[in-house]
Amino acid sequence: MLFHFLVSLFIVAASGDPINESLGPGDDNFISRQSAALLVEVAGTLDKVRPAILEPRERALALRLLDAVLHDTHAPNREAVQHFYHARIEAAVKQIEESRVAEGMRIWKLYNHGFVVRTPSITIAFDLYRGPAKFRWDGPDERKVVDSPGFPLSDALAQRIAAQCDALFISHEHRDHADPVFAEAFLKLGKPVVAPESVLQDTPQHARITHMKREAHTVQTLPIQGGKINLQVVIYPGQQYQGKGVPNNVTLVISPEGYTFAHNGDQINDPYPEYQEDFKWIDAVKNHHRVDVLMTNCWSNDLLRMVRGFNPQLVVPGHENELGHQMNDRVPFWGDEEYLQLNLSEVKAEFPTLRMTWGESFHFVPKREAR
């Protein structure tokens, strides 16, 4: 399977039309060929060296090589990038369809900050997104929006993912987290979609979305699997501040087995230190709930303080390399921490941290006692 995938990358790289018209045709075609060649190396390494908490150097280098490919301004329109992305998500979907969990949880990372978590009894999805059909490009004179119709996953693949899950949690209204196609796929199957009131407000889905109370530390119940299970859920009243204060659900799920996993969407308290209200509950999460896994955006400011508030057994970062953003805002696996004023490296020094990219998964069995 890997052999045919790699061969097809070279085939698509040889095709003709310019992707970035600001480059000469020779340079543009070279970038396409180089993307294909580098993705061959990335795919081969990631398939051989799987995600691990103690990350092998070979794997770290493969992720940095992936950063280099995805920081081509027009990467979403490179056929090799599209093929690499689609192939990895299709492989993940096949694994979701075929695998079961006897103990602990398996965590799949799909695109951006989208995750699927499966325990022996439930399968829960967060912020599923097919990928950008447009991306921002900082051209020489002005910022432009460029169409990338070949990048998003197909509606059929979204429906296959929805068929395997029991519920979808959407953190906030931004399109790289709130995908109407994924929402509709769940709702058509009679599966709950939980989100703040502002999510998909002007769409036919809005009236069918579940709006749970945004209340710190309070356990609520959500019927899933046709009412067979009343899932225990906490919806923390988060925000993506950045001057606007977009409501952002930070969701904590407690599985019937007692496993707990949280997803923080785009929680950020920026500008700092003006918007610190949410730290009143963030700092106290660990005093109310044991958290086994925290799936966190990699670029939240003062991320170490946030992680300390949850005190998880495992941290899984997300939101790297969002290709809908302009190149300098696609946060790379290498971090760019000094420039972006981030501290994920400090989190890694204090908490077990697992890095994954598109389509990868990890089986984690939490310790029953809290950290």
Q: Would you spell out the secondary-structure blueprint of this structure?
A:
Elements: H1 2-13, H2 25-48, H3 57-70, H4 79-98, E1 105-109, E2 115-118, E3 123-126, E4 134-138, E5 143-147, H5 155-164, E6 167-169, H6 180-188, E7 193-194, E8 220-224, E9 229-240, E10 246-254, E11 260-263, H7 279-282, H8 285-288, E12 293-297, H9 303-310, E13 314-318, H10 337-340, H11 344-350, E14 361-364
Parallel strand pairs: 3-6, 6-7, 11-12, 12-13
Antiparallel strand pairs: 1-2, 1-14, 2-3, 4-5, 8-9, 9-10, 10-11
Helix pairs in contact: 1-2, 1-4, 2-3, 2-4, 4-5, 5-6
Could you give a quick summary of the protein structure above?
The protein is α/β, with parallel strands linked by helices and 371 residues long. It has eleven helices and 14 strands.
CATH architecture: 4-Layer Sandwich
The level of helicity is 25-40%
Low-confidence stretches: none
CATH C-level label: Alpha Beta
Largest beta-sheet details: 6 strands, mixed
Head-to-tail CA distance between termini? 41 Å
Query: What would you call the shape?
Result: globular
Mean of all residue-level pLDDT scores: 94
| CATH fold type | Metallo-beta-lactamase, Chain A
Query: What is the tally of helical segments?
Result: 11
Structural class: alpha/beta
| Element-level helix/strand string | HHHHEEEEEHEHEEEEEHHEHEHHE
Strand content: 15-25%
The largest sheet has its strands arranged as 7-6-3-2-1-14
**Could you tell me the radius of gyration in angstroms?**
20 Å
